[in-house]
Specification:
The protein is α/β, with parallel strands linked by helices and 207 residues long. It has two domains: 77 residues, Glutaredoxin, CATH 3.40.30; 107 residues, Glutathione S-transferase Yfyf (Class Pi), Chain A, domain 2 (Up-down Bundle). It has seven helices and five strands; from the N terminus they run βαβββααααααβ. It is globular and about 50 Å long. The structure holds glutathione. The site of glutathione has 10 residues, from helix 2.
Amino acid sequence: MSATYELIAFPNQGRAEICRNILRHTRATWTETNPKWPADKATMPFEKVPVLVETKSSGKKLVLSESQVIERYLAHSRGLYPKHASLETIAKIDQYRDQFTDIFTLFTIVFYGKHHHKRPDLLSAIQFLVKKHELALKANGSNGHYIGSSTTYVDIVAYTLIKMFKDKGFGERLTARAAPELNRLIDIIGSEIHANLPSRTTVSSRL
Ligand SMILES: N[C@@H](CCC(=O)N[C@@H](CS)C(=O)NCC(=O)O)C(=O)O
């Protein structure tokens, strides 16, 4: 039996959404627990979520905090870096992934923090990312992937965050016309994830 996972996270599409999509895409056996807050705060290793609890086939448990660490751990252990990838390839994948970090922080400030006056900053940051990432996707052969010819971690990240920005009302610079390569990626990764959706088991709530 392979490992199983419990993802402890708030139910919204926030920092945990990339982890969810990695678990969905790779047909993991996983459950989600929505914590009771602030009652459960002190029980989390660093008093924040998301937290991943992995139970290995031996029964041994690993408890991890920090969303991007959880993402990378899952991506490595579930085959979302190319097999036998060189350190250089891993670094390129991580480089494109981390390009989204500052933008996501700004997004949380504008959307969840309701600092609407920062919306133009977010749109400019998205526009800059689009310019650079369209070129990278084109240079890889316009196949809907950043690296190689199959899905890697960064493709799941781009799918999750670009779709999130569009769905939450920040899509002006992300139309099919403005960002054809990223939109192709969204279609491809979205259909792979939806084909894989039965992987999801249960969501339990302590709310
Ligand atoms: N650097 C951490 C930040 C985690 C974080 O700020 N989590 C928020 C939810 S998205 C949280 O736990 N907020 C509740 C609190 O701080 O009490 C990560 O990326 O996981």
